[in-house]
Amino acid sequence: MTRKACVIGWPISHSRSPIIHGYWLERYGIDGAYERIAVPPDDLPSFFKSLGEKGYVGCNVTLPHKEGAFRAVRVADAATTRLGVVNTVFHRDGELWGTSTDGEGFLANLSDHVPDWQAKDRSVVILGAGGAARAIVGALLDAGCRRLLVVNRTLARAEELRRDFGPRVEPRQWMDVEKLLEDADLLVNTTSLGMSGQPRLALDLDHLPRSAVVTDIVYTPLETDLLIRARARGNVVVPGLGMLLHQAVRGFELWFGHRPEVTVELHDLVARDIDPGFKR
Ligand SMILES: NC(=O)c1ccc[n+]([C@@H]2O[C@H](COP(=O)([O-])OP(=O)(O)OC[C@H]3O[C@@H](n4cnc5c(N)ncnc54)[C@H](OP(=O)(O)O)[C@@H]3O)[C@@H](O)[C@H]2O)c1
């Protein structure tokens, strides 16, 4: 029987998950389907109640449903409980379970691009304190980072991260950001600044050590202005698209029983969907 999974959101037309899972289904010759379903917020509880009856083995969850999904399912692990959001839902023993895969997607992307880089004992500057930052803070702390300076326009959100994740998280004012770069081993942009259609990320990199790795989780454009400037001054850079690809791995494995590979071919397929002029 054809196994079906889907991605839900409101709206959902922008999601690239069907390209990713469709590629893997074809590559591994699996009799499966992956659909895109628009679910209005009020319909979320009934959608989850009938997910199994409709023949779905699970789903990905995107905005604005990640918190709603967290409340609707059994949470599969302590790291996800701490985050309070779920992006991957699956059936197990007649029940719906949920987990979050953004943190592992972030770390796997980093390790793809900079295999020798270890988080242990490193000092990190994270720009932003939204949903994605939460997952990344959790993953970097679990990987052993020494300190995480979280710089956010709204300081209260960075302070919330310290409350939830403990003293290795240090909230900082946005106006101090350039000086804070002095001690960074890794700089991560998790704000939407620099994304197509959003204001640019105006950040002077003069204080950043040349040895620091710079990553931006924004992937439209594929290479942000931050990455272009960091690369030009000699920093190793890690674009954000790989995080999207790697966060999809565990869901596919849970639903279709095969751990898929993030290949160059998959990267380029999605990159061309974002930018038809993309060339390697
Ligand atoms: N590569 C991937 O797989 C992946 C995964 C998830 C998200 N993303 C991308 O990451 C970005 C953030 O996503 P999210 O879910 O964390 O969003 P979010 O929860 O809405 O958080 C947005 C963050 O950006 C900051 N921000 C927005 N506009 C700003 C401005 N004009 N000046 C300064 N700061 C500003 C916000 O600061 P305030 O708290 O002050 O509002 C907040 O820290 C999006 O571009 C998203 O597409 C990528």
Would you mind describing this structure in some detail?
With 280 residues, this protein is an alpha/beta fold. It folds into two domains: 3-101 and 248-274, Rossmann fold (3-Layer(aba) Sandwich); 103-239, NAD(P)-binding Rossmann-like Domain (Rossmann fold, 3-Layer(aba) Sandwich), CATH 3.40.50.720. Helix content is 37%, strand content 21%. The protein has twelve helices and twelve strands. The chain has helices spanning 17-27, 44-49, 66-72, 78-83, 102-113, 131-142, 155-165, 177-180, 225-232, 241-247, 249-256, 264-274; strands at residues 3-9, 32-38, 56-61, 74-75, 88-92, 95-99, 123-127, 147-152, 169-173, 186-189, 213-216, 236-238. Helix 5 crosses helix 6 and helix 5 (102-113) packs across helix 10. The model has no long low-confidence stretch (mean pLDDT 97). The chain binds NADP nicotinamide-adenine-dinucleotide phosphate.
Summarize this structure briefly.
This protein is α/β, with parallel strands linked by helices. It has twelve helices and twelve strands.
Task: Write down the domain tally.
Answer: 2
What is the ordering of alpha helices and beta strands?
EHEHEHEHEEHEHEHEHEEHEHHH
Strand order of the largest sheet: 2-1-3-5-6-4
> What's the total helix number?
12
Structural class: alpha/beta
CATH superfamily of the largest domain: NAD(P)-binding Rossmann-like Domain
The helix content is 25-40%
Rg (C-alpha, Å): 19 Å
- How can the largest sheet be summarized? 6 strands, mixed
Overall shape: globular
Q: How far is it from the N-terminal to the C-terminal residue, by CA?
A: 38 Å
Low-confidence region ranges:
none
Q: What is the fold named in CATH at topology level of the largest domain? A: Rossmann fold
Kindly state the mean pLDDT as a whole number?
A: 97
**What are the distinct ligands in this entry?**
NADP nicotinamide-adenine-dinucleotide phosphate
* CATH classification, class level of the largest domain: Alpha Beta
